[in-house]
Write a structure and sequence with these properties.
199 residues; Rossmann fold; 6-stranded mixed sheet
Length: 199
């Protein structure tokens, strides 16, 4: 692989890429909006969650009338209404319900998950899609980069994972801060710290 030189060809390649957004929550809403505004024409989104009233203060693609509806459906409708020239499609369900043939049709996967186990599963799936050539090197046509992002309370992280080339999500788990949990009675009844208000 040679050095990356940005230019019109790079922009055209991204614009025509099939991009899967995993998660339509806080990060997913931003990702979907940014992709559409960056000129990406083929966007797909998968999420299993429905909109709750607590999502309305931080997930800007949703309105009060959307409470109870699937996040991926509403987010895609909103983005399509604002950017009618793009093709955007949603899938309602768990990422684990899709097989390798589903993930292999995308050129890039952008993850906005808040669950480490789901991020680990997605990483393993995409790494497993890479085929090796006769010399034991990864076949570039089977590599699907992941732009991985996630949050833990007030902390967030992002990285680009190029399967079999860069370190994968699993390789860097030790870099994550330990997960904190708070008793539900504290959160529900007497929140005393900002962390108690994040879920």
């Amino acid at each position: 692989m040679g050095e990356f030189v940005p230019g019109a060809e790079s922009h055209d390649k991204l614009a025509n890429a099939k991009v899967l957004v995993v998660g339509a929550g806080g990060l997913g809403c931003e990702i979907l909006k940014d992709l559409a505004m960056s000129g990406v024409k083929n966007i797909f989104c998968i999420d299993l969650d429905t909109i709750d009233v607590t999502n309305l203060n931080r997930q800007f693609l949703f309105r009060a009338k959307d409470v109870g509806r699937p996040k991926c459906e509403v987010a895609c409708e909103f983005v399509k209404a604002r950017s009618p020239l793009i093709e955007i499609e949603h899938y309602l369900g768990k990422i684990q319900d899709k097989d390798s043939s589903f993930y292999s049709k995308f050129d890039v996967i952008v993850s906005g998950l808040d669950n480490i186990e789901a991020r680990r599963w997605l990483n393993a799936m995409v790494v497993g899609l890479v085929q090796m050539d006769g010399d034991g090197y990864p076949d570039p046509s089977t590599i699907i980069p992941i732009v991985d992002g996630g949050t833990e309370g007030f902390k967030g992280q992002s990285r680009v994972i190029i399967p079999k080339i860069t370190s994968c999500f699993e390789c860097s788990l030790s870099a994550f801060p330990p997960q904190k949990s708070f008793p539900m009675c504290t959160i529900a009844e007497t929140p005393r710290l900002p962390e108690h208000c994040i879920r």
